[in-house]
Amino acid sequence: MPCPFATAIDKIDDYAELVAFEHTIFALPFALSTVLLASGVYWPSLATLGWVLLAMVGGRTYAMALNRLLDANIDAQNPRTQGRGIPSGRVQRLEAWGLAIISLLALVVATWQLPILCRQLLPIALVVLTGYSLAKRFTVLAHWVLGFALGCSAVGGWVAITGALHPTPIWIGLGVTCWVAGFDLIYACQDTNFDRTAGLHSIPAKLGVATALKVSKLCHLATVICIAMAAIILFNSGLPASATHAIGLGAAALLMAGFLIYEHRLVSPQNLSQIDAAFFTTNGQISMGVLGCILLAHSIATGLIGGS
């Protein structure tokens, strides 16, 4: 007789795989970074952090569950994705719909606990989170639609603290948009032939792998420029602890530049065998490294490090 506990653990694993939960590491650190940058010389309250985390995880889980539902028939035809939860039968469509709805409710509830501007921006967020799954059916700009979906998290983190927009998180959001689009271009290279056969739109399918990798490099160059611009704007903003935070953000831009150069050394049109390392490992290190830079700067700004 199967162990109920083991069965429950397996089901949780299936849900986590369904929404690629480990990929939360890409967007969440940037949202937390802008939360810290917006907090000035104070630490955000645990309640605010909790609502931001719930909104982030809820929004991303909703988007990924919906993506897997909408793409289930496509995934079933692609040898690389046939083992995913829904095509393999490990997750039923009704279960995935339930997960998507619960996650959407979590996003809405969390947003309602944050400043009113967060609520006003929620419809835009829902359009982006819902629409990015369909974008590749219509346009090669799908890579940037995905990037924009994650870039919004950086803006959202700032608004959750201040209740207002500012050029700093907007430039960070643009940087995240370009960063995600760049590594999604690399990831999409492995599905070039399938996308062409299935009539799906992507830069690799449209222009070839070599061109896609060049476009990816341009995206990542734009990423570093955007984060550097955010640091310059923050330095001159006159906000509390802006200079300290700007130095941390500048250090994050340099760190990203180094990791992105390394990422592009891992792949070439002739050798895509290191895509997993380039996509997940390196980009996970980037996002955590950026958060580390901002966390250190904020600790200095608040006196936690180096204070009297």
Estimate the helix proportion, in percent.
Answer: over 70%
Note the beta-strand portion: under 5%
What is the total domain count? 1
Distance between the termini: 62 Å
CATH top level class name: Mainly Alpha
Number of helices: 14
Shape: globular
Classification by helices and strands: mainly alpha
Low-confidence stretches: none
CATH architecture identity:
Orthogonal Bundle
Short description:
The chain contains 14 helices and no strands. It has 308 residues and is an all-alpha fold.
Molecular structure report:
The protein has 308 residues and is mainly alpha-helical. It has one domain: Tetracycline Repressor, domain 2 (Orthogonal Bundle). 77% of the residues lie in helices and 0% in strands. The protein contains 14 helices and no strands. It has helices at residues 4-18, 24-38, 46-70, 72-77, 85-88, 93-111, 116-135, 142-162, 167-188, 192-198, 203-207, 209-235, 242-265, 275-301. Helix 7 runs antiparallel to helix 8, helix 12 (209-235) packs antiparallel against helix 13 and helix 13 (242-265) runs antiparallel to helix 14. The chain is globular, with a radius of gyration of 20 Å. It starts with a helix and ends in a 7-residue tail after the last helix. The mean pLDDT is 90.
